[in-house]
Amino acid sequence: MLDIHHFTYGWLTPLLAYIMSFTGSLLGLQCAARARAGRGRAGWLVLASFAIGGTGIWVMHFIAMLGFSITGAEIRYDVPLTLLSAATAIVVVGIGLFVVVTPQPTLVALLAGGAVTGLGVAAMHYVGMFAMRSNATIGYELPMVALSVVIAVAAATVALWFTLRVNGFLATTGAAGIMGLAVCGMHYTGMASMHAHGSGHGAPVDGTGAMQLLAPLIVGISIVTMLLLIAVSLTAIERDAELPPLRAAIVRPASEDLAPQPKPRVAPARSAADDLAPPPPPRPAAVHVTPENFATLSPATVGPTAEDLVPSLPPYVTSVPQAAEVPAPEPGPQSAAISAAPVTGTPYWPTTHDVPRRR
């Protein structure tokens, strides 16, 4: 049996593989969150399937395979099968997203989508392994293969659940980190099921070397990642542009609450005597008094007099003691002039002509 090395370049390839899986999962979750908003659902789900299936799963698998080597054997890759594995990852993730991310998601849809997506991811992994060409004989242990399939289904179900429930940048980042760990765990579990034996012949191996696929892979992934980042950023800018009126409506009441408010006026308490007292007479409308219309005015028109404002006597009081009469003052020049006016039945209105002038 030949020795298999999964970390030929140390922790560099696992770390890069996890970063790509995390990045693809993060972009996919953000696209799925925008698909739940209702506008452009199909387009956002297609972008999410490319992000999760293409960048988060297939690219992670390929970068991890860069650190794979077999002692004494040459490893090359069949390009058509490698591309088929990439298409498989994108398609199965897209199917799962379209099944689960609906206006009315259900538990049955979540489980069905997780099963389809998980089996598809496992198929992608083993199609990619089948695309590997070597002059060594490669075999697999079925218990480890079954475990990797279970991990793939569980990871796919959790990932689809995240696409339904996760909101906010911090929550999305944490969910993407968990998804990246699950995908890497599934990959290395499947790789642990493999063993290799020498074939005894040194015939040349067909296919393309891993480094020859690396340059177009980097260019393609960079283009897809940049397009996804631009699309997500533009939608975030448009959403922020629509929020200022709403933010103003939310912030304005808070600032008004901090301003001092006038104290409410409290009406004085009423006693039982106030309830028994007769109501005051209605207040008449304002009347402009002139010397011409003074004779035609009546108490009802002018309003209540001082006598009317005295409260009525209770029934047990029969009289009110009168104050002592005060003798009228001696009439002076003004009062004499005023008293000299003729006495008639018409009310008299004194003027300044009735008062003698003094020099």
Automatic annotation (TrEMBL):
Superkingdom of origin? Bacteria
From which organism does this entry originate?
Nocardia bhagyanarayanae
InterPro entries given in the database record: MHYT_dom
Name the coiled-coil region(s). Answer: none
Q: Which residues cross the membrane?
A: 12-32, 44-70, 82-101, 108-132, 144-162, 169-190, 210-237
GO terms for cellular component: membrane
Stated name of the protein: NO-binding membrane sensor protein with MHYT domain
Start-end of Low complexity biased regions: 267-276
Q: Does the keyword Lipoprotein apply?
A: no
Give the record's keywords alphabetically. Membrane, Transmembrane, Transmembrane helix
Q: Which residues form the MHYT domain?
A: 9-197
The UniProt record lists the keyword Membrane: yes
* UniProt-annotated stretches for the region Disordered: 254-286, 323-359
Q: Source taxonomy lineage?
A: Bacteria, Bacillati, Actinomycetota, Actinomycetes, Mycobacteriales
